[in-house]
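User: Before I run my own analysis I want an independent prediction to cross-check against. Here's the chain; please return only the structure tokens and, at the end, one sentence I can use as a sanity check.
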Amino acid sequence: KPNAYKRMYGKQQLEWLKNELRYSKNNPHISFRIIVTGSQVLNPGSPLDKLLDFPIEYNELMEFIKTEKIPGILFLTGDRHHTEIIKVQHDGLYPMYDITCSPLTSGTHAFAGKEANNPWRILGIDKLQNYGRISISGPRSKRMMKVEFLGVKGEALGQWQVGEQELRF
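Assistant: Structure tokens:
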């Protein structure tokens, strides 16, 4: 449950992340800043662990992104036994995306409870083992990131893409 005193990352790791994001901000060669983490970050509908359950760090990170105007952030997460893309819009930020991809080798489950019709989900795959493949293409300042979701035999299960222009202030 949310607890203002608990931390998921800890002060040192969160400061490291913020420093890396700050350093990358002015690099014209970086179109997307993909933050890879074991638990979902943004999903307000998830009953399980997510960075949103650690309000000190969640709010600090979102405020940092907004204040520093760090473009191009996406979260790549797992450990949910389903695949989904969550879109959340915060005041003062571009749309934020949580790309969750799992599982390939473990059991699966069906969307249920309040997650069955999660209003923040823009793509969802449940009850199927799968994996994701990310590709980035296009000229500088107009790059696109495509995420393809594939079954265990490589069959296409879904895809989604976002342009770097959508992830700007």
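Sanity check: The first strand starts at residue 33 and ends at 36.
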